[in-house]
Design brief:
Layout: H1 9-37, H2 39-50, H3 55-62, H4 68-76, E1 80-82, H5 86-90, E2 102-105, E3 108-112, H6 122-137, H7 141-157, H8 162-174, H9 179-190, H10 196-202, H11 210-271, H12 277-328
Parallel strand pairs: 1-3
Antiparallel strand pairs: 2-3
């Protein structure tokens, strides 16, 4: 019969210790591999843990329809809303004539604090726009290439969108090499109808993307309505000015001719140069009719002048309102930071 050797406590302890070391080694290796392949996620997770946003900061992104991952990227970027000149230190204005509403710089989101109630939604759209920049830089090269193809295809459909083409021309001048990145943020926050494949991509970050698009349309319509009305009034002013100028010139010519004819008529009457009273009254009636017609012309011209002045007043009012709105989004007019 084969004998069973008893295992000494020492040998059991050594074997257990070896197993523990192996397990710990495996865990450490797994953790190392996880950190290697998920380095940015770990950094983002730590950033979110350390960041303590105000309710106002959180409310901005909550209104845009992002999902949990979109909000995670937003908070990982430690967003800051600023209404002082400090904003300009973080978001460089390459072209001074263009207002900068926000930027994504050094893995941080900065948003200019626009407070005009007419532009409700502008900060929220900016927050979502910059969050999509955070998403883009975290994509792999393959994913970026795929997304670039999708947004370029969408951009071609929008060739008649003058505002968009001008915006992309601005980005080409100020941020060369970032076309795909910018298109990804612009289309994602401003364009309602896109391809199903691109919409599927944005679902990684949005539970309801139309919410942010609606906010964009809401505030941009304020600028568009003012611009459209200003264009209408400008056209009306040009027509009225031309009409008044032409009518006034013709009125002055007709008035001078009428005055000469009245002088001649009076001289003929004094000289007895009419063969009969019927001739006298007939010519006097024709002159009186011309005087009445000229009075009508003068009244019409005066009415056009009144209309021109009223139209000009409205145009100036809209210009003033537009300037006020544009000033409200111009960070160069922001006050210095308080001490």
């Amino acid at each position: 019969m084969e004998r069973l050797e008893s295992m000494s406590p020492q040998s059991h302890s050594n074997r257990f210790g070896t197993i523990v070391i192996i397990v710990i080694s495996c865990v450490l290796t797994a953790m190392s591999l996880f950190l290697v392949f998920n380095r940015q996620y770990v950094i983002d997770r730590i950033a979110v843990w350390q960041y303590h946003p105000t309710s106002a900061i959180t409310a901005l992104i909550d209104r845009t329809g992002v999902n949990d991952y979109g909000k995670f990227l937003y908070l990982a970027s430690k967003p800051k809303v600023d209404a002082t000149q400090s904003f300009n230190n973080e978001c460089d204005r390459v072209e001074k004539i263009t207002s900068i509403l926000g930027c994504y710089s050094d893995y941080h989101i900065y948003i200019y604090d626009v407070t005009d109630p007419q532009l409700d939604g502008i900060k929220e759209v900016t927050a979502a726009h910059e969050t999509l920049h955070a998403a883009y830089i975290r994509m792999s090269l393959d994913e970026k290439a795929k997304v670039n193809t999708l947004v370029e295809a969408e951009y071609k459909k929008l060739a008649n969108n003058k505002d968009l083409t001008e915006m992309m021309a601005f980005y080409a001048r100020t941020e060369p090499g970032q076309r795909g990145n910018e298109l990804h943020s612009v289309i994602g926050t401003e364009i309602a109808n896109i391809s199903p494949e691109l919409e599927t991509h944005y679902k990684k970050y949005f539970a309801d993307r139309q919410k942010v698009v609606n906010l964009y349309n809401k505030y941009i319509s304020v600028f568009q309505k003012l611009s459209n009305r200003a264009s209408e009034l400008s056209d009306q002013l040009k027509v009225l000015a031309a009409t008044i100028t032409t009518s006034s010139a013709q009125y002055n010519t007709d008035a001078q001719t009428l005055n000469n004819d009245i002088t001649a008529f009076n001289k003929r009457a004094t000289d007895g140069d009419f063969s009969s009273l019927s001739q006298f009254y007939a010519e006097r009636n024709r002159i009186s009719s011309r005087v009445a017609d000229l009075d009508v012309t003068r009244t019409t011209i005066n009415a056009d002048v009144v209309k021109y002045n009223a139209t000009l007043d409205e145009y100036n009012s809209i210009a003033s309102e537009s300037k006020k709105l544009y000033n409200s989004i111009d960070s160069t007019l922001a006050p210095a930071p308080s001490v």
